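Allow me, if you will, to draw on your knowledge of protein folds for a short while. I have a record of one protein: its chain in single-letter code and its fold written as discrete structure tokens. I should value your view on which stretches of the chain appear to form regular backbone elements. Thank you for your consideration; the sequence and its tokens are set out here:
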Amino acid sequence: MKKPKGKLTFASSIFAAGTLIGMSSCGVYGPPEPPAQGVYGPPEYFGIEDDNTASSDQISPEAEVPTPAEDEELSEKEYDPALVFTWPSDDPSLSVVQDYNTNTSRIVDGDEEIPVDIAMGVYGARVMKCDIDGDGEDEYLISESEGTGTGYSVRGLCIVEKTDDGYKQTVYDGEYFMQVIEDRVIFAYDAESRDLTISAENDKETYVYIETLEGEDEVDDIIWRDQIGVYFEDGKVYMSSSVGFFFKGHGWPEYEQSVELYAPITVDTDSQIVVGDIQARDGDGVKD
């Protein structure tokens, strides 16, 4: 996945805006280890490249929900039922089923099955059904697992709504949310005070959050791209990003002092979204 530049300054060593050094694909958003097979997803499966997932400049709310092409018939011997996973929701009649034999996904809502074209990362899909845009009709919202690996999890948002001809879906991928953070958030670290200042440009004012790091290890880098989340809470949808630290001499990022960025997402009747005010909190509040 392409990783956009970030905005990071060090008070003791000023780097040009738009520069990050020593980036790593590590982090701890979502389950800390790949789930066991038969529960959340096959452990050997660490995501796929989804060429059909829209990036920030490719969003097409009018795209029709694809009907999967007929796959070559799999013999009973070749087809492995253990590679079919059901991702439940708070509603026992609603789930997403992903078949890793055929790389296909579908929403199951009672007796109805709706094919969807979403990413099939190991951490699986989350689904919610509600009238998110206030038009009087329920939509399906899916948090898709796009990129996964040890310490790495990137999610996107898929909106599926009923039309006169069936269903259409709109996807905002993890890179879209990375770009939102890139455009609106500045990280500034003061090596002397060990203060990390996060400034977010919101609609009405600039939000500022300061975290003082413990210990004495020198900070080499700040990591925020590896943990992009989309989660549901109380009938609403949110995006998030876990912020971790690379300390000098350490081979992996530190998340014991992590900070979580989060923001509500609103959805209009044409499936256009608006990412609301970005705020920060202690990483203990991270959602899966």
Q: What stands out?
A: The radius of gyration is 20 Å. Residues 61 and 170 are 5 Å apart (CA to CA).
